[in-house]
Design brief:
single chain; alpha+beta; two-stranded antiparallel sheet; 4 helices; globular
Length: 251
């Protein structure tokens, strides 16, 4: 039964991308992209859409976002679950995608649990070994204008029962419990980096600072160019930092 439901869902999602006027696609609304901070579609205009774009189906408990790519590139979809205080989404990536697609066997998959609430995205990374979650010592907190990356200690462990509240508590008190990543040896195991995000057209500029707008030398950390999905692009865009002149890297 589960296999049938999965196949049926895939078929419906495929139709939603390839035939906007089909009966099955009436359950979906087509947009240029999806805004994860507001959890809603952006730019609903099917006549001027650029690929990739998205087809969205939602109800009170779930939001399904289908990403419609160009040509033979495989479409993708994300499912968000309403948990009351937040929306929940988990991504699973293979550490060796080529081996996975040839053998269809997990190659130590990496999971990213994502909690979306109050215009905020919180991401926690881990893998599973011997039936236990193993932290990748990475916790990221994103808003429209800022991004905070925490390096967790190697001994970090978190329960499954109330993970959202525990992670939120960590991020809320990061300045008191995490030193700034200043390159010192005693700060390598546990630290934070803070970035200011500036959007210019289809690009995002990431400026690193200590969270108090004290910018470092060579403070422009990265420049990322996105496709028509903008920041929602699951491929995370393309870095063009190498094109930047050295005299343009600090504010």
């Amino acid at each position: 039964m589960k296999v049938f439901v999965s196949v049926f869902l895939f078929f419906i999602l495929l139709i939603s991308c390839n035939s906007h006027s089909s009966k099955a696609s009436l359950e979906y609304a087509v947009y240029q992209t999806f805004d994860e901070y507001r959890m809603m579609g952006v730019d609903k205009n099917t006549e001027e859409l650029k690929r990739p774009y998205v087809a969205i189906k939602r109800n009170d408990s779930t939001i399904v976002v289908r990403i419609c790519y160009e040509g033979k590139e495989q479409d993708n979809f994300l499912i968000y679950h309403n948990k009351g205080k937040y929306w929940y989404n988990v991504k699973k990536e293979q550490i060796d995608p080529k081996l996975y697609y040839t053998t269809l066997s997990d190659t130590l998959p990496i999971f990213t649990e994502r909690y979306l609430y109050n215009d905020t995205i919180m991401e926690y990374n881990y893998y599973i070994e011997e039936n236990r979650d193993k932290s990748l010592q990475s916790l990221t907190f994103k808003t429209r204008n800022n991004e905070i990356r925490l390096t967790l200690s190697t001994s970090f462990h978190i329960s499954k029962n109330n993970r959202f509240e525990e992670l939120k508590h960590i991020i809320n008190g990061f300045r008191n419990n995490f030193p700034y990543d200043d390159g010192k040896i005693n700060h390598r195991d546990k630290n934070y980096t803070y970035y200011t995000k500036i959007v210019k057209g289809d690009s995002v500029f990431l400026y690193e600072n200590d969270g108090k707008n004290n910018y470092k030398l060579v403070c422009l950390d990265d420049v990322i160019v996105f496709n028509s999905l903008g920041e929602f692009d699951p491929k995370n865009g393309k870095s063009v930092m190498w094109k930047m002149k050295l005299d343009k890297r600090c504010k």
